[in-house]
Amino acid sequence: MKKILLVSLAVVFVLSLAGLSSATNGDNLIGVGPIARSMGGVGIAAPQDALSAVFANPAALCFGPYCPGSEVNVDATMFMPNAHTKITADAAMLNTGWKRSDSDMYIIPAIAISTPITDKLRFGFAGYGVSGLGVDYKHKFDLNGMTANDEDMYTDLSIMKIAPNIAYMITPNLSVGASLHIDMGVLDLNYREGSSTGWALGGQIGAIYKNGPVSLGVVYVTPQKVKHKGVFDFDGNGSADTLALESPQSVGFGIAVEPVQNVLLIEVDAKWINWSDAIGYRDFDWRDQWVFAIGTQYKPIPKLALRAGFNYGRNPVRDHDGWEGSNMTSVQGKTMPVFNYEVFRISGFPAIVQRHLTAGIGYEITKNVSVNIGYMHAFKEEINESGTYFGAPASASSTLKEDSVEFGLTYRF
């Protein structure tokens, strides 16, 4: 219990240092930690460390290399998005040309523990940056060329999660698990009130069935809504408005096969993310997303693990064409011009990358300590839409590509 308390306090401390966690399946990370991320984000059926288990499937704490003892993971991701945008509106004498966002590097921490309570019952605890997105176009352009005001565009969304976890082994082949999710969401839209922080509660349940070299996993995550008070004046009436953003519910399935025990592991996951019903995302017309991931781990010698993976999730941001930007639309009861709405959707939150290629390596330094390194590249995607503004041509476009490097230490005892 003392070990659990110390790690729990470390989780809270590490998360207090966290910045924005930019992400890649919509505004969610494909996975957490260097092992899962270097394997394409898989882990629903056979995660390889405690952090991946708590994140991907709470039932997995009963199966894995961290059993039957205890394990602590301390990881960090250096995330490097590369976003550009171009906005035009002839009636407002606006043509920004292609501008690059200055939000181009973030450090995302993560920490986790898994430990037995009894032979069949295990406890896990993790804290990690799980989702977010943002751009920084301050002083890059003026969204209204007919006024002297420099209408900067800056968005910064970060969601960090603390997740205590219980898993129970019903039979030697079947385990179930559940996690409590405590979310802290921070949103900054460069408004006079500054950033807004809100909290949410949710949960995750899962099950794993293992028969010889084959493991099957299923997991469900509840929606989790955070209210960001006083974050922006959407309707232009001079008062700060509240924007609610709900992390969507999701359902995931995984199958893992170990053709050669302790040498070769292959896993395939599929996950459905319900963006279209999530408060905030549905207001900005996000569609549901199916995410498919495949990952493999090969150990040529017991101390060395080579990993690779691929992750694909269709861009959830719908592109709109034919709009009239001077018309009005409503977002959570606040009216705003369609042009502002479309620019906010396309340029402010360009969650458009789809294809991710990953690789990594792990090495066991001693019987108790191992180090893991991973790399992810999300290929460049572009979204374009056009309409009119006071009858004259108008458009909004964005591109995004991403790279990340992951580092982690694992201690087993």
In short:
This protein has 413 residues and is mainly beta.
What does the model show?
The protein has 413 residues and is mainly beta. It has a single domain (2-412), classed as Outer membrane protein transport protein (OMPP1/FadL/TodX) (Porin, Beta Barrel), CATH 2.40.160.60. It has four helices and 21 strands. The protein has helices spanning 2-16, 34-38, 50-56, 338-348; strands at residues 71-89, 94-95, 99-100, 106-116, 121-136, 154-171, 174-188, 196-211, 214-221, 224-232, 241-247, 250-260, 264-273, 289-301, 304-313, 323-324, 328-331, 334-337, 355-364, 369-389, 392-412. The chain has a 14-stranded antiparallel beta barrel. Strand 8 (196-211) and strand 9 (214-221) form a beta hairpin. The longest helix is centred in the N-terminal third of the chain and has 15 residues, at 2-16. It is elongated, with a radius of gyration of 22 Å. The chain starts with a helix and ends with a strand.
Question: What would CATH call the homologous superfamily?
Answer: Outer membrane protein transport protein (OMPP1/FadL/TodX)
In angstroms, what is the radius of gyration?
Answer: 22 Å
Number of spatially distinct domains: 1
Helix content: under 10%
In the CATH scheme, the class would be Mainly Beta
The N- and C-terminal alpha carbons lie at a distance of 14 Å
Based on CA inertia axes, which overall geometry fits? elongated
Helix- and strand-based class? mainly beta
Query: pLDDT average, as an integer?
Result: 91
Q: Which sequence of strands runs across the widest sheet?
A: 1-4-5-6-7-8-9-12-13-14-15-19-20-21
CATH architecture: Beta Barrel
Number of helices: 4
Major β-sheet profile: 14 strands, antiparallel, barrel
Question: How many DSSP-defined strands?
Answer: 21
> Which spans of ≥5 residues are poorly predicted at pLDDT below 50?
5-9, 15-21
Order of helices and strands: HHHEEEEEEEEEEEEEEEEEEHEEE
Oligomer: single chain
Strand content: over 45%
As for the CATH topology, it is: Porin
